[in-house]
Amino acid sequence: MIDTRALTDMTYGLFIVGAREGEKFNAMIANSVFQVTAEPPKIAIALNKNSLTHDYIKATGLFCVQAIAQEADMLFIGNFGFRTGKNYDKFAKVSYKLSAQGLPVVLDNTLSWMSVKVGQTIDLGTHTLFIGLVEDTEIIKEGKPLTYDYYQCVLRGKTPRGATTFKENKEK
Ligand SMILES: Cc1cc2nc3c(=O)[nH]c(=O)nc-3n(C[C@H](O)[C@H](O)[C@H](O)COP(=O)(O)O)c2cc1C
Fold it and tell me: What share of the chain is helix, strand, coil (3-state, %, to 5)?
């Protein structure tokens, strides 16, 4: 028997994951982002196969991860986490720059960025696990990173269908 409370006891941070394909670029919110080795530093991310960012990473083998600052509001998170870049320009109202590799770096409400080169890709069914080597990093500003717990308990944020931790609410 699975009591899903055991899964909701797990803690996470919240991140922006960015990617590009040719001249196009996109980014999304993800909580399933974690460091898996120290030497060399490697990062793993689990992305839903329906997301545009997923497709860009599959195409180029590159992605960018940014820790979100705690002062980020729901408008900012909604822009990247509840809309898809397939039919909407997420960068129209935020300040950003492009890294040397052309990856989008969001400058509003983020603490840092790192670019990652994918070394392994694992098919998880609904999601793909991308594991890669950190190649470049930059600190944008000092601050507290936004945690998933703060997002849920203080900002009262929800988790969209497609996220790794999505739970169907069957209560009436
Ligand atoms: C709090 C939060 C956490 C999320 N975590 C993940 C995640 O770990 N993996 C994932 O694939 N999607 C996650 N999502 C959902 C994506 O951000 C969302 O599907 C987004 O619209 C995809 O955008 P895209 O199609 O432009 O790439 C999360 C969203 C929110 C708001």
Answer: 15, 40, 45
At the fourth CATH level, the homologous superfamily of domain 5-153 is Electron Transport, Fmn-binding Protein; Chain A (2.30.110.10)
Domain residue spans in the chain? 5-153
Q: What pLDDT is attached to residue 109?
A: 98
Q: Which atom of ligand 1 is nearest to the CA of 78?
A: 31
Q: Find tokens 């950003």 and name the residue.
A: 96
With contact defined as beta carbons under 8 Å apart, do 71 and 141 qualify? no
Closest CA to 123 of 63, 62, 65, 47: 47
Q: How many residues does the chain have?
A: 172
CA of 56 to the centre of ligand 1 (A): 14
User: pLDDT, tens digit, for every residue of 23-62?
Assistant: 999 999 999 999 999 999 999 999 999 999 999 999 999 9
